[in-house]
């Protein structure tokens, strides 16, 4: 998942398996078999070596990488010339990685990966279809929020299992214990960066959107805890808590 297209967030994609469908033809080279060299001897020749074992069958190609990007930023990152320009990679004399976007994520959408059938190495003696030939749908706990402002394609994603909201470069915590306690000395506060392609009005709207989202998720957590307390009170004899005991579920702008 790319929170936006700046070079410091996408250059690592080039280290992953390619995204193009043609990458399915890549196979790992079989492990070479080496024979042992024997020194010449004046006496009887060494016994013949046993025949080398057959090399293992080549492994199936790794699945292609699926890249997720905000659907709001299609024109910002495509075609490749736009990606190269807006990634700012050229300012460092670098080239943006070339990749296909597998998921153009809509606002408030849940991330679902569809694993298409992968080509398999034919096994003539086997009548059992390979699991790699089956389509697999993977539902994730991640929800996408469009949060433009820093860039038009900026997004945030929420992990419902860990209750963590990743906002990329849209919003910074200006100072942290790590920046204050750096080995080279305290670092100055880090401001949220804006360049000529940023939009301050969009950024403010995204900020309010994220705060509202956090309020809702915190309220849901409080309601869940209240329901669990009420359920426990009804099943545990002699509990000091009564069924009327509640916890505060008033929405607050706390961190999720």
From TrEMBL:
Residues 112-195 form the Metallo-beta-lactamase domain. It comes from the Eukaryota. Residues 234-256 have a biased composition (Low complexity). Residues 45-65 have a biased composition (Pro residues). Residues 42-67, 233-256 are annotated as: Disordered. InterPro entries: Metallo-B-lactamas, NDM-1-like, RibonucZ/Hydroxyglut_hydro. This is Metallo-beta-lactamase domain-containing protein.
